[in-house]
Design goal:
By secondary structure, the protein is α+β, with helices and mostly antiparallel strands. The protein has one domain. The protein has four helices and four strands, in the order E-H-H-E-E-E-H-H. The chain has a four-stranded antiparallel sheet. A hairpin with a 2-residue loop joins strand 2 and strand 3. The longest helix is centred in the C-terminal third of the chain and has 27 residues. The N and C termini lie far apart (about 55 Å). It comes from Anoxybacillus andreesenii.
Length: about 100
């Protein structure tokens, strides 16, 4: 039996700083801060998996498979992904806020 390769998640901020900057640019349009979401990237044989989670929790907001070229120069697909993830993050933060008030 062959062993499956293990892929390690790395912080997007350190692994692909240009991509991280574009994500933060999209998130700032929704008044979100770097600590509101956590982005990780996992190197795969055929590209990379980019995951965004709600900061401080394990709630997955979105995941996308990108090429190394997209990591260096984000295209419209990646920017649209960031916009969608930022909107979802904002909606979840608002929902969580109102749930805390009800308690």
């Amino acid at each position: 039996m062959g062993e499956l390769p293990l892929y390690e998640e790395e912080s997007l901020r350190f692994r692909a700083p240009r991509l991280y900057d574009r994500m933060m640019e999209a998130f700032s349009n929704y008044n979100l801060h770097p600590y509101d979401a956590e982005a990780t990237i996992t190197q795969k044989e055929e590209g990379m998996d980019l995951s965004i989670r709600l900061g401080g929790s394990l709630i997955d907001l979105a995941t996308i498979h990108i090429s190394p070229k997209q990591a260096e120069e984000p295209d419209e697909e990646v920017i649209s992904f960031f916009e969608t993830a930022a909107e979802e993050c904002k909606n979840l933060l608002i929902k969580n806020y109102f749930n805390m008030i009800k308690l």
